[in-house]
Design goal:
With 124 residues, the protein is mainly β. It is built from no helices and eleven strands. It has strands at residues 2-6, 9-12, 17-24, 32-38, 45-50, 56-58, 66-71, 76-81, 90-97, 113-114, 118-123. Strands 2, 4, 5, 6, 9, 10 and 11 form a seven-stranded mixed beta sheet that branches. Strands 1-3-8-7 form a four-stranded antiparallel beta sheet, with no helix packed on it. β5 and β6 (56-58) form a beta hairpin. The radius of gyration is 13 Å and the shape is globular.
Length: 124
């Protein structure tokens, strides 16, 4: 199973980016899909996820600025990030899991499949 994340880059504070995550050998339908990030020297942290029924979950830091969504035709998950801040600078990873439950979704240790990460750098 491979997850391919893309869309990162260097932007200024206040700008927007859209990250994409496509899967091979795995359909993103009816499983949990998530985005996590890891800043230098910090642990990987939850950003957003979609449940099997595509209900979104967000970290407090992402609420109101980030939107997670899925394109059923392309079988791709997106993370639209608006009003970016320097503290959003991190490597962003997409993840997927077939057996996830709601109460465990915010812990990266509970996710089975991971993409390679895409770097987002927000300058002030």
């Amino acid at each position: 199973v491979q997850l391919q994340a893309s869309g990162g880059g260097l932007v200024q504070a206040g700008d927007s980016l859209r990250l994409s995550c496509a899967a091979s050998e795995l359909t993103l339908r009816n499983i949990y899909k998530g985005w996590f990030r890891q800043a230098p020297g910090k642990e990987r942290e939850f950003v957003a996820a979609l449940t099997r029924s595509n209900t979104p979950l967000y970290a407090d830091s992402a609420k109101g600025r980030f939107t997670i969504s899925r394109d059923a035709v392309k079988d791709t998950v997106y993370l639209q990030m608006n009003s970016l801040k320097p503290e959003d600078t991190a490597v962003y990873f997409c993840a997927a899991d077939r057996g996830m439950i709601l109460s465990s979704a915010r812990d990266p240790k509970n996710w089975d499949y991971w993409g390679q990460g895409t770097l987002v750098t927000v300058s002030s």
